[in-house]
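Action item from last week, closing it out:
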Amino acid sequence: MKRLILAAALAAAALPAAALAGPAAPAVPGEIAVSGDHKPYLIAHAEGVQIYECSAVAGGHAWRLLAPRATLTGENGQVLGSHYAGPRWEARDGSVVAAARDGGVTVDPTAVDWLRLKVTSATAGPDGDRLTATTYIQRIHTVGGRPPAAAGCDAGRVAEQREIPYSADYVFFKAS
């Protein structure tokens, strides 16, 4: 048994530092770059919808974002968790992080903005704490998700909801 433990320790020590590091920080516009002592540790691809509601606003009517609803998957296609109102991200182990917009930039006018979100709370789940170390989240590589055309929201459609398909990559950062 001691030989097995020693062999495992030696094998781990022989791994290059890059093999132990998390994913590389993506190239992003400066408005959403995460600076300081934070490094990415998880990248999840999201497929889902942005849910909008027609609302009365000063001077007329507009589509207001209610919530996202998306499934998060890893590079291997396995489900990692979900993304929903709050905004919140929940891992399969039940750990949850909530975050608030900290920066944004329009990269593609046909897609929702790329964002930097600062974590406001994190809780462990019944089966683990995968997301609890998260400090920042970036939403990048967005496709779709923009609100419906303004002309489709009027007094006769107040409270009507529309689900607009979107996809994005979420990069989870933690303190290094």
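Closing note: Confidence is low (pLDDT under 50) at residues 1-20.
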